[in-house]
Each structure stands twice: as C-alpha cells, then as structure tokens.
Amino acid sequence: MKKILAFAALIGIAAAGTTWNIRRHDSPLGLTPQEKCALRDAPHDDLSADFSDLRQNMKNGARKLTHDLAAEKTARATLSIQGPILNGIFDADVPAGIQGQMRADMAFIDDIQANAASALHQKIFGPANGRTYMDFFTSRVKEIGLDDCGGGPGVMACVQPYTNHSKMWLTPNFVKYDMPQICRAQIVFHESRHTEKKNSYWHHATCPDPFKDENDNEVRGKVTGTPMAGLAACDETPYGSYGSSMIMVKNIQKFCTNCTEKIKMDAGIYADDTLRRIIDPDAHKEICEDLYRDAPKTICKELPR
Amino acid sequence: MKKTAAIVAVLIALAAWWATTRRQAPGVARLVQLTPPDSAFSARSRKPSRAEPSQSRAAETAAPSEAPAHPGAYSQVPPSQSAGRPIKASPAPDAAAQLHTLEEILASKNDNDPRLDSDLKTLTPQARILFRGKYRQLPTERRNERGTIVFLLSRNPTSPEDWAFLRQVVGESPCLSLDDCSREEKSHDPHRELGVDVTLAYPQMVALNQAEQLLEKSGKTSATGQEALRVIQSARTSQSPLVARKAAELSGRF
Fold it and tell me: Which CATH architecture has domain A85-291?
C-alpha cells in the first residue's frame, strides 16, 4: 500500500516537473511569455503565425530603422532657413509647403550617387553626383520666389530672365499637382539653365510646322493633342534647357547607384519624352549616340533632314 | 484497501499525463511540426487586430470581383494560389504593414524611399488586394500615387487579377488636366508644361513600361510575356494619344 502510494506520488511529481520544464523550454526560439500566450491563442492549424510574429518583430525593427533614416532625410530637407539645403534663398512669401517640397526634392538630388556619366553629361554638369548637381543649381539660382509664371494648367516654375535672371519662381502647382519627384527635379533644372545670361538664357527654338517625331507622328502636347507646331517649345541643341535636363535625368536612370527602381523608371520615361523636343537632326543624333546606344531603335530613329 | 490505493494511483497518473499533454500542444506540437496542414482555408475567427479596421474599409471599396466569398474572409487567397498553404481568416499582419508603408511613402512624396525596393518589393496576395483597393480609392488626379501603386503591382504580377488590373489601368479614360481629370484646361504655354503629358498618362505609362520590362526579361512566348502583350494590346485603343503611341511602338517591337 505504502509502496503503491509512493509510486503514484513519484509519477505525479515527475509529471509536474516535466510540465514545468516544457513550459520553460517549449519554444526553441526563446519566446517571451507574451509571445507564448500569442502562440497558444493562435489558430492551431496555422503554423506560419508561430514564426510570423518573430519575423514581424524583426521586420518592424528593420522597417523602423529604414523609416527613421528616411524621416531624418526628409526632416533635414524641410527644416527652416537654418537647414543645409537651399539655405536662405526663399522669399518670405513662399509658402512653407512649397519650401519643404523643394528642399526635399533637392535633398534627394544632393544624395545622388552614380558610377558613371555620359560624355554630354560631363560637358554640361561634370560627374553625375549630388554635389555636382547642387553646385550647378546653386551657382545659377540665387533666389526662389512665388509667382504664377503667366498662369496655365501645367506650369510649375519659371525664370524671368529680363527681370532677375538668377531668380527662379515656383507656382502653387509645385505642391498642388501630384507628379513624380524626378519630374519636379527635371523641371527646376530645366529652369535653372534659363538663368545663364552668357548663353542668352538658352532660349527655345520654334517647333517646326508640321512637327513630326522620328516615327512620323505629329507631336502634340497635352492628352487631347494640342499641336506644338509653331510654338517656342523645342530645342536645336543638346545643351539647352530641354537637352540638358533630359541628359541629367537619363544619366540618373542609367548610372544612379542609390536610386530606387521607381526613380530610375521615371527618369527614363520623362527623359525619353523630352527627347521629342530636340528637333535638330545633329543634336538629336548626338544625344542618341551619347545615351541611347543600347536602346531599341524605335526610340532613337534618325530625324529627317 | 489495496484496490482503492491502486485506483487512486492510476487516477493520479492519468491526471498527470492529461495535464502534461494539454500544456504541450500549443507550443511544442506546433513548433516541431515540419509541414503545414493541408487545409487550404481556415475560417477560424481571431481576436481583431489593430490593422483590421483599415483593411475593412479597403475591402469595402474593393471591386465586386474581389468581394469576399464569406463574411470576414476578405483576405482569402484565390483557390489557385492557396493549395498546400494555411491561410488565416483575418488579414495577414504583413499585408496591413505593407499598406501602411505604402501610405507613409505616398504621404512623404519621397519616390526614393528605399522601402519601395525592400518592404514593398514582394507583395503578399492579401497586400495586392489591399493595394488595388487603395488605387481605386485614390482620386484620379493623384497621378503619381496611382502610378506608384501600378509600379508596385506590376513589378512581378502573378495572378489573373494582377494582369486584369493592369489591363484595366491602360484602358482607363484619359485624365484631361492635373487640376481635374474630367475637365480639359486650355494650354497657355507648352514650353513651361514640361512633363505634363506624361504625368497625365503616368499610371498607364508605368503599366506599359513594366510590360515592356517583363517582355524583355521573359520573352514573348512565356506565359508572362503573353500576358504583357495583352496589356499592350489593351493600351492600343487608349484615348490618350501618348499611351496609344507607346503601345503601338511596343507592339511593333514585340
């Protein structure tokens, strides 16, 4: 009798000890009691939940770090005039939102790194990197103000060279419209080229009439097809505002090493569209040989002479 | 007496065994399980998570073709994708997190946010549903935001719903102005409207660009290539001259 009771007690103690041990070591992942409770409460037929919590914690940590880095960059760019980007060049009446967006865009430009630059890019800007671009911009644009630039549904920025050739004007559309970041960057660099007094402000050429592209399609603006023939909206040189800005963004597409896939995709889309405005066959050919050697022939067909 | 003692001993042993196995099941049994169960779908309910309310709103605005088959099961993966994988009844935390990341990036207007190429590189099936819902929620004038979603969804389309979405995007009515897609505004100075054409057609141009990339990578005879060609064909009849021209150029090349 005593032996039987002793034996039963031993079994009970052994069982209790095993249970305690399992509870302490039931997860090889070293989970906290809260995580174990979450596992216990999770659907029993869903193994992925067991590991997804831990993976999620790790991802959250990594995500927070990436988010913090991105937030820091944005914050640095959107600081007031004490910030390092475009320090002190905004007029007082430029709304904070426009200043912030411009600074954020230029912070992105400032950070660009690339592993090469095309020959035309070297001639216009130098190496393809943020320092080059910022020096290019800040050496030309000394002030930024607010203006409607003559109005118009798609106008974002302008330079009025005969009033103040080193001042750029931004319109409210700069923050009102939802455009890709690389498009805004291309616009402001396009406008910065118009500040160059020694180059007659790189005035545009008149688009020919009829105005056809390399595929013999009529070139039209806007989605409904406003013809551009006869308008001062073309260039006859790779070095003008259209040419230089498209060369810049095309180099970003091809050579940027710290740009997202979206930035590079957008750079290509907008650069390829701008190429249509280069109407001189030699200028067009020079750009094609500089930047489109490995591109499909349909993009860079020779222009008729 | 001996019998009683024996019965008591057996009962104690049974009780101890029962207590042990009950505590073991939730932790050890699942963690040592090497393969998931075969059931494709589990309708077991869970405690509502913090992410669920936004997903409920997204699900409400989802297209009818993506309406949940069962109440509360709006994260259900289509049967073609679900074979052999356990699927939770409630939205996966990953999907909610990816949507949250997307919304953060769109609000920041920072197209160079590295999370576009990390956290949002591979979207879960549930996230894809949420992203498509987000696309439909956005005003048509949000060209870059819509285009960003198209970019993310078209980077590696996998399901028939992904491809149907892309065909739908390229077939959309053109946006007539950045102020109001339903209303054309007269152009004042095309010189100063650099990039406006492309921006108005941006989601469509992104879809075509991605179709082109997929064709170059996969070839036109692959299943992916065939679907990409269908997207391009759908774009050929676009009312946007820019989109139609791009589609014609791609059709000629492939």
Answer: 3-Layer(aba) Sandwich (3.40)
B155 and B240, same structural domain? Answer: yes
What is the largest distance, in Å, between two alpha-carbon atoms of chain A?
115
> What are the boundaries of each domain within chain A?
1-26, 31-77, 85-291
CA angle centred on B125, ends B116 and B246, rounded to 5°: 60
For chain B, what is the largest distance between any 2 Cα atoms, rounded to a whole number of angstroms?
108
ipTM rounded to 2 decimals: 0.73
Contact partners, residue B239, CB within 8 Å, separation at least 6: B173, B174
Give the best residue of B192, B216, B217, B245 to mutate against chain A (max A CB count within 10 A).
B192
* Contact with chain B for residue A92, Cβ under 8 A: no
- Check whether residue B118 and residue B164 sit in a common domain: no
| Nearest chain A alpha carbon to B35 | A47
Instruction: List the pLDDT tens digit at each of the 305 positions of chain A.
Output: 788 777 877 877 776 666 555 455 444 444 456 544 543 554 444 444 445 555 565 555 555 555 555 555 555 444 433 457 898 899 999 999 999 999 999 999 999 999 999 999 999 999 999 999 999 999 999 999 999 998 777 889 999 988 999 999 999 999 999 999 999 999 999 999 999 999 999 999 998 888 876 667 777 665 555 677 888 889 999 999 999 999 999 999 999 999 999 999 999 999 999 998 999 999 999 999 999 998 888 788 888 77
Assess whether B116 and B208 both reside in one domain.
no
Mutate to test the interface with A, among B108, B197, B246, B251 (most CBs of A within 10 A): B197
Cβ pair A179:B143 closer than 8 A: yes
